[in-house]
Design brief:
This protein is α/β, with parallel strands linked by helices and 420 residues long. The chain has 13 helices and 16 strands. It has a single domain (4-297), classed as HUPs (Rossmann fold).
């Protein structure tokens, strides 16, 4: 992989807006959390495992945190945004072997496609876009710290994390957790483990797989510790192993990702981060919902993924894709019906037509309505509905008494990322 500083896509220009907008309330895993938007915000979003193209589920997830970033920035917060790349993991290695290509070349090609899709969709790049392969010494040090704190034990040549003290925080029933853990890379039945849910921290090198030198032997990290380490290091600095805060303080403000990460990934990475620092990991853990296709779950195993790059290559306006994904609430599971894309494109064109008029309907009330809708856990459907109603009024001309819509255009770009 290339140096991590070269991986992030170019920063998207976000216009400045002079609008008084409300506090942001987000629906976290533990309840509603209010962000005043004045304090600095540390945002960590789980990134891709780069073995396939960016599909609409990916796009919807990263669009969610883009809107959160935009809102908090407009509110006055300095947002530090970090995203990882899981560029060594079983799915990547398995596909590379299946296709007869080098796993590093596969990862690089898919990262390139992902960043191209994110740019097209007007999604802001992270301040740090960090491949796991570039932080092995940090992972090594973090595992050593967890071992010193009493959370690490060995099974043969592999290291495991003792999850026992964190089980009261388990977000789902234990029986469900055991089943999901087995489906998503865990090994609950392995002999020698203290608890079936204990996740691997360091996997000793297997034949034909890559490995890195460490004080724990040659191998590679488990999935969960990677995110814990990248979030802590790049959002809290070089002294992340020895913070000065207490348990009731959070290491970061927002941990984000899709709802498929609730368990095991977010639970495990948050537990391991706390085992490193002695602090709660995130003030808010926010999840975006899943997208299906024509009544079925969208997944690689079903072969029914809709890829962003395919839509764009077919001539679909990226802003219409963004609009379509904003049309449903980010925490509501939804279906994607390709035949609806033409309708979303027409809606975007209606708004563009209204914004281009010399005289438009008054915009101050609309701007406040959109801001208030977004402040309520990103109610983007309500925001877009208000915008469409304003567009229809403007096009009808009956209340079009205001000259120009420049302020509204900048506001839509700044908070919704709709560059229309």
């Amino acid at each position: 992989m290339r140096d991590s500083s070269m991986l992030a896509w170019p920063k998207i220009f976000i216009p400045k807006v002079d609008v008084d907008i409300p506090h942001l309330t987000l629906r976290s895993q533990t309840g509603d959390i209010v962000f005043d938007g004045k304090s600095p915000t540390r945002l960590y979003v789980c990134g891709i495992t780069p073995y396939d193209s960016t599909h609409l589920g990916h796009a919807a997830t990263y669009l969610t945190y883009d809107v959160i970033l935009r809102y908090l920035t407009a509110r006055g917060s300095t947002v530090s945004f970090v995203e990882n790349i899981t560029d060594v993991d079983e799915p990547l290695l398995e596909r590379a072997e299946r296709d007869g290509i080098d796993w590093q070349d596969l990862a690089s090609s898919q990262v390139d496609l992902f960043t191209s899709d994110m740019t097209a969709l007007h999604i802001q790049s992270p301040d740090h876009f960090v491949p796991v392969t570039t932080v092995m010494p940090l992972v090594d040090s973090a595992i050593t710290k967890m071992k010193e704190n009493g959370y690490v034990y060995s099974v043969e040549n592999d290291l495991y994390f003792d999850i026992t003290s964190f089980l009261p925080n388990l977000p789902i029933p234990l029986d469900d957790a055991l089943s999901i853990f087995a489906e998503r890379g865990g090994d609950p039945a392995r002999a020698g483990k203290r608890h079936p849910l204990d996740p691997v921290l360091w996997l000793s090198q297997r034949d034909g797989e890559p490995g890195w030198q460490s004080s724990h032997g040659v191998g590679r990290p488990g999935w969960h510790v990677e995110c814990a380490v990248i979030a802590l290091r790049f959002l809290n600095g070089e002294n992340f192993l020895n913070p000065s805060g207490s348990l009731d303080q959070a290491s970061i403000e927002i941990q984000g990702g899709g709802s498929d990460l609730v368990f095991p990934h977010h639970f495990m990475s948050a537990s391991q981060a706390q085992a490193i620092t002695g602090q709660k990991f995130a003030r808010a853990t926010v999840h975006s919902a899943m997208i299906g296709l024509d009544g079925e779950k969208m997944s690689k195993s079903k072969g029914n993924l809709v890829f962003v790059s395919t839509l764009i290559s077919e001539g679909v306006d990226p802003m219409a894709i963004r609009w379509a994904l904003l049309s449903d609430h980010y925490q509501t599971d939804r279906m994607w019906y390709p035949e609806k894309m033409a309708g979303y494109t027409q809606q975007v064109e209606r708004v563009r037509s209204a914004l281009s008029r010399e005289l438009v309907s008054p915009t101050d009330g609309l701007i406040q309505t959109i801001a208030e809708s977004l402040s309520r856990n990103l109610d983007t459907p309500a925001a877009l509905s208000a915008l469409l109603a304003w567009s229809d009024e403007t096009i009808a001309g009956e209340s079009a008494t205001q000259a120009g819509a420049g302020e509204l255009s900048r506001f839509l770009d700044a908070l919704l990322g709709l560059a229309l």
